Amino acid sequence: MYISFSRLAAWVTVIASLSADPAWAQKKYDPGASDTEIKIGHFAPYSGPASAFSVVGKVEAAYFKMINDHGGINGRQVRFVSYDDGYSPPKAVEQVRKLVESDEVLLVFNGLGTPSNSAIQKYMNAKRVPQLFVASGATKWGDPKTFPWTMGWQPPYQSEARIYAKYLLQERPDAKIAVFYQNDDFGRDYLKGLKDGLGDKASSMIVAESSYEVSEPTIDTHVVKLRDSGADVFANFASPKFAAQAIRKMAEVKWNPVHILNNTASSIGSVIKPAGPENAQGIISAAFTKDSSDEQWNSDEWMKTFYAFMDEYAPNVSRSEILAVYAYGVASTLVQTLQQCGDDLTRTNVMKQAASLKNYRNEALLPGVTINTGPDDFYPIEQLRLMRFKGDKWDLFGETISGEIGGNQ
Hints:
There is one protein chain. The protein is an alpha/beta fold. It folds into 2 domains: 6-155 and 294-378, Rossmann fold (3-Layer(aba) Sandwich); 158-287 and 386-402, Rossmann fold (3-Layer(aba) Sandwich), CATH 3.40.50. It has helices spanning 6-18, 54-69, 89-102, 114-127, 157-171, 185-198, 202-205, 220-227, 240-252, 268-275, 301-313, 322-341, 347-354; strands at 28-29, 37-44, 77-84, 107-109, 131-134, 150-152, 177-182, 206-212, 233-237, 258-261, 284-287, 344-345, 383-390, 393-402. The strands form 4 sheets. It has a 5-stranded parallel beta sheet with strand order 3-2-4-5-6, with helices on both faces. It has a 4-stranded parallel beta sheet with strand order 8-7-9-10, sandwiched between helices. α4 links the parallel β4 and β5. α5 packs parallel to α6. The chain is globular and about 65 Å long.
């Protein structure tokens, strides 16, 4: 299938014009870069309790293959080296050491999960290797003074949770909220964001909390405990596998509170379908990317390009998988960053360019959502829109909302 990638053509034109600039005359390389290649490291849970996220690594690999087929980045081919960490922090440390010390990658890109990235953060910064566009919304990825080599990409979990708090304060100010969360930085960030957003009302509105471990085979007892609290709002801050379990169990015990579901677990393919779409009706979540399963985007030019890309380069992944849109969006942001680097492919310049994205409009993002970074702002995306699951898809509602986290936290 022929694919028309107009953006790639535009990039080639830009790079051709920039190559005449004297600033591009002197080539500079760190390990992982050369005249012909850029080596990018990556890890993801291709196995284990969070293996639903393996879609991200698969689509990113396909994206870089597409980039290579269209001439690479400034004429250099991308070598994408991706390892399985099984969502295990010790395994992540082992794999990242291999990437940095044996494979000698230029950077580690979009490693997935708060626990795994927390385990490698100090190491990456000590080695002065970019830990770039982390696949986690923990606020710790936006601290350039303490960790200048680490940057996130997606909206911080605390920002997202504050948006849910705004919604509840406006629509259900007398709600009794039960919070279900993963017992690590991932879950605790959501919990903190919700409490911060509720402010003085947090202590009265939150009537129950229950955390789970990723090693637990089932979370049924947590759901029953939270139902018995008398809550009429359920804040589901779980990763996909456990979020799906919670949705199924709630239907089984006939508990029907207002259900808030975190964006990370909003995938129709990985969560809603396994849980049963009939059990997910009315769930409220938030989004910052377009939804490839939503018919409203069928006439969108970028979505047509995305569908064509998926058909040719990732035929074994469903086009309706929202994690695939995420993967495409974050991978294209890295390509933009590396293109801005020109012939200065040093790790220092990679971070400089990552912190120099101004009103960058990535077409995988919802209209109104833009990417902005600066030397003191390592939160590229801070905007979301609320959405409600109806029928077999998510319906957006309301305006684009900021979670009000900016700058160095």
